[in-house]
Each structure stands twice: as C-alpha cells, then as structure tokens.
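**User:** Everyone, produce a chain:

**Assistant:**
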Amino acid sequence: MLRQRTSAATVARHARAFHISASWFRQILYSYNDIKSVSKASPATKKIIDVREPNEYAAGAIPSSTNISVKSLQEALSLDAPDFKSKFGIAKPSKEQDEVIFYCRSGVRSTAAAEIAEKLGYKQVGNYKGSWLDWSSKSEGEQAGESSSQLKPGPDGKIQGVGEGAKGGIDLKAMNQRAHKEAQEAEATPLTTDGKESESVKNGAEMKEGKKFQ
C-alpha cells in the first residue's frame, strides 16, 4: 500500500462531475495484491466499497465488497449505524477506527468517493485506482493459469488431470492420429452443405501447417 497526497487539480477534475469541491487529502493507494488480500481476509476494520451503479455491481464485483453508488455515498455515510446496517447489510464503518476502501470501474469515481469520505471525517481512506478493470483482468489471468496447471503428463505420456473427470488422461498420440485422418478427409470434403467450413477443414489446415496438439 502506498500513501499519496493527490493534487487539488487532479481531485478537482474528478470531483466536478459529482458536484463536490476539491481539496487536498490523504489516501491509501491499493494495488491488486493488496485488495486481493483484504477481500480474502475480510478484516472487520477494512470495508471495500464498490461505488459503481447497481447494474455494474451485479455484473461482477470484488469478493466481500459492498455496493454504494458514488451518487448516494454521502447520504449513506451520513446514516446512523442501525439504518446503515439495515440498508447495506454490514456495520457502518467507524470514522476513527475503520478504513474505507473504494473502487469503481477505472478509478475516477473511486477518487471522488475518497474525497467524500474524507470530507465526512473518515481518517483512513483507501483508493484502488486500478479498480474493476485491473481486478477483472488480473483475476481472469490467474484463473486461466490455474486451469492450465491442472494438467500434467503421466508416465504413459498421457496428460493426467488432477481434477474431476481426470481418470484415464488424454492420449495426445491418438488425438494427433485422429487429426491427421480428418486432414485427409478435408481434401475430399472442403465445405459442409450450408457453405460453412467444417471442423475437418479447420483441423486439416492445422495439420498442413505442422501443428499438433501439445
């Protein structure tokens, strides 16, 4: 995490869209790994708040985050504790003891939200400036890497999956033989009856280029 003082000019540019005044304030900048750790641990003293619109939040959000749109943030943080919990399902963050961490789609609304919280008296204000674009890109990359790591070659040369349905493995030699046969068939049957390229044509093209399953 990095503490940074944001210039008044930068805040002003972001704040004008939400009709709030610009001022100097301190914020704690969060990286993807920082947010990942907080979202997994879900510490009681750190609240991740998604300030996008509800439809954006419904389409995908950071785990353990709570949705409060930036347009209604000031009103929400001004509620008393019982009303806040009733409306949002979590305890209202303490201005003195808790840290509120904001994110949006690309960091613009989260920057405006951070200023709102600071003006309301919150002492610890975090901003994930990479926001959803950064999170979705990196988390999807990690998931893809984990999926590929689930396959590994066994002693018989087959790829053995370690997850469900892995029994028997994948015989790469047999797959390549089938692909070669399909490549030969493609010479005689270049197109299907509806004019679309057949699977055998696609596989045949790959074999001609010397590509094999790996």
Q: What stands out?
A: The chain has two domains: 2-140, 159-208.
